[in-house]
Amino acid sequence: ALGTGAVMAAANFQKSMNKVKAITGATGKDFGKLSSQAKQLGKTTQFSASEAAEAMGFLGMAGFDTEQIMQAMPATLDLAAAGAMDLGSAADIASNILSGFGADASELGHISDVLAKAMTNSNTNVEQLGNAMKMVAPVSKGFGISLEETTAAIGKLSDAGIQGESAGTGLRGILATLSEKSKQLGIDVFDASGNMLPLNEMLTQIENKGMSTATIMDIFGKKAGPSMLALLEVG
Q1: Per-residue pLDDT at 6
Q2: Are 47 and 77 contacting, i.e. CB atoms less than 8 angstroms apart?
Q3: Most distant CA pair in the chain: distance in Å?
Q4: How would you label 47-58 residue by residue, b for 16+ Cβ within 10 Å and e otherwise?
Q5: Separation of alpha carbons 212 and 200, rounded Å
Q6: DSSP the chain
Q7: Where does residue 188 fall: left (phi above 0), alpha (psi -120 to 50 degrees), or beta otherwise?
Q8: What confidence score (pLDDT) does residue 58 get?
Q9: Which of 51, 89, 203, 205 could form a disulfide with 187 if both were Cys (CB 3.0 to 4.6 A apart)?
Q10: Structure pTM?
Q11: What pLDDT does residue 7 have?
């Protein structure tokens, strides 16, 4: 039975690595390095070599080359462990956020730390954060809103029961409305260089206007309005 299990594990690993080869186009030394790292991670972490290979496949699908995959794997494992999730899902979430913010693979460790911090300080988890980021990360990047500020806002929305894609969609709507209706709101949204001001500064301006719930809902709409009210409640 042990022998059969070992053969099956080896076969699963080879199947996963063949998929990595097909996705990344890695051959020769590059493929050897990926295979060696997956085996090493299987020996030294709570995850199997096949699971590590699966994560490499997701990173490859996100356009990572061999060096980027190898650089990103330790942080991907940390994220999976923190979120009590499988490596493939963690790699998918991490790569989506990296792409959304136009970040480099070397920044994945920091992204993992930020998500773990949010998860332990708000009513959300890594999967919900990932789903939220899919909806808002490119918009945040476009307006110059940082990963940290975006994550903090998602965390506060999650505390109010607006989680996952709903949080991302709500925050995306808030940013778009702030950009489009700054005159109607009577606030400053952009600095002299054309960059969007920090969210807390804009929220303070809106708070000082003393707008009613009806006015906020009218300006921000049915989708983004509840999210804006939730952030104003936090202050």
Answers
A1: 56
A2: yes
A3: 73
A4: bbbbbbbbbbbb
A5: 19
A6: -HHHHHHHHHHHHHHHHHHHHHHH---HHHHHHHHHHHHHHHHHSSS-HHHHHHHHHHHHHTT--HHHHHHHHHHHHHHHHHTT--HHHHHHHHHHHHHHHT--GGGHHHHHHHHHHHHHHSS--HHHHHHHHHHHHHHHHHHT--HHHHHHHHHHHHHTT--THHHHHHHHHHHHHHHH-HHHHT---B-TTSPBPPHHHHHHHHHHHT--HHHHHHHHHHHHHHHHHHHHHH-
A7: beta
A8: 87
A9: 205
A10: 0.85
A11: 59
- Residue 163's Cβ-side half-sphere holds a number of Cα atoms within 13 Å equal to 13
The alpha carbon of residue 182 and the mean position of all alpha carbons in its chain are separated, in whole angstroms, by 28
Separation CA 153–CA 79 (nearest Å): 20
What's the pLDDT score for residue 217? Answer: 97
Tokens of 127: 């999967």
Long-range contacts of 15-22 (CB under 8 A, 24+ apart): 15/50, 16/50, 16/53, 16/54, 16/57, 17/53, 19/53, 19/57, 20/53, 20/56, 20/57, 20/60
Closest by CA to 175, choosing from 156, 155, 149, is 149
Q: Single out the residue of 33, 26, 95 nearest to residue 63, CA to CA.
A: 95
Burial of 223 (0-12, 13-18, 19+ CB in 10 A): middle
